Amino acid sequence: MSDPRTTPSIFTRGAVDLSALRPSTPARPAAPSRPAAAPAAPAGNVPGAVPGPVPGNVPGVTPDVIIDVNEADFQSVLEQSLTTPILLDFWADWCEPCKKLSPVLEKLAVEYGGSWILGKVNVDLNPRLAQVFRVQGIPQVTALIGGQPVEGFSGVLSEAQVRQYVDAVLKAAGVSVAAPEDPRLDAADDALMGGDLDAAEAAYRKILAESPADAAAESGLAQVELYRRIAGVDPSTALAKADADPEDFEAQRLAADIEVLSGQAAEAYARLIALVKKTAGDDRDAVRKHLLSLFAVAGPDDPAVAGARRALASALF
Question: I need a labelling partner for 85 at 20 to 30 A (CA). Which of 42, 109, 198, 295 fits?
Fold first, then answer.
């Protein structure tokens, strides 16, 4: 399977023929795909949910979030995917990589609070499902949207990569989900607001090591660097110095930092873009990198950043 991060056709539909799995008679009640230790509460209104312990034994999870899927009840699972995206996790007891991926999927299924359903498919108990979905190696994840499969991935991915795939599936399904709170970011932000820059930096770097594309952590780390640059600086003095000498390279950069912290980001960007036009070589590259660090403070969705990026590109080329 292709990597969902790079495959343009990730949401190409109809690649799998599901007609053989649509029974002509009503589906039989689902059977557990692993022995049940004790009866559990009835499984809400999710077709295909089974009694017994939740797969993976995730604390606090209801069968509405994680279900066992088998061949007999697959039609009801397809019907459920008409309204709620379903991610099928093809696994087996003997599969060691599955034991690494499944807990990540289960954790995210809980975190997203029912915006999608995790369907566990034991390939040993459901060989026909594995065949229909062309499972050549496990673990394999395939999503169902609107009763049709979309391309997934095989093998073990990091939590950040799986989260990216889940978000892409939800976007394709037209599901809007609020970003879940991240306690790691809360702790890092608390350290930043409390002035403990060393602790904040360590926390943000740890998040980025685990989730390299985390925009909030990138912004937090850029803020740490910004606060360090203006430590002990008198804002009015620094701005006056920069205004008095437009050719003072360091003064202009420091003035831009102060303007960002004063809520004048657009002015800061314009100041540094003007400096880019006046400089060359290493100085120009240093200004460019400084400006990019200020973009990171604001985050990629800031409209002022989008305009400044275009102006920077024009200044550079």
Answer: 42
* Mean pLDDT of all residues belonging to the chain: 80
Q: Is 49 a catalytic residue?
A: no
Active-site residue (options: 30, 66, 95, 157): 95
95 catalytic residue (yes or no)? yes
Cβ count within 10 A of residue 18: 17
Tell me which H or E stretch contains 105: helix 96-111
Nearest Cα to 299, choosing from 188, 241, 216? Answer: 216
Catalytic position from the list 98, 260, 275, 312: 98
Tokens representing 303?
A: 């409209």
Residues 6+ apart with CB under 8 A from 188: 200, 203, 204, 207, 217, 220
- Checking if the pLDDT of 16 tops 70, the result is no
Tell me if residue 121 falls in helix, strand or coil: strand
Tell me the CA distances in angstroms from 179 to 65, 112, 116, 171, 309, one per residue in order: 18, 9, 14, 13, 26
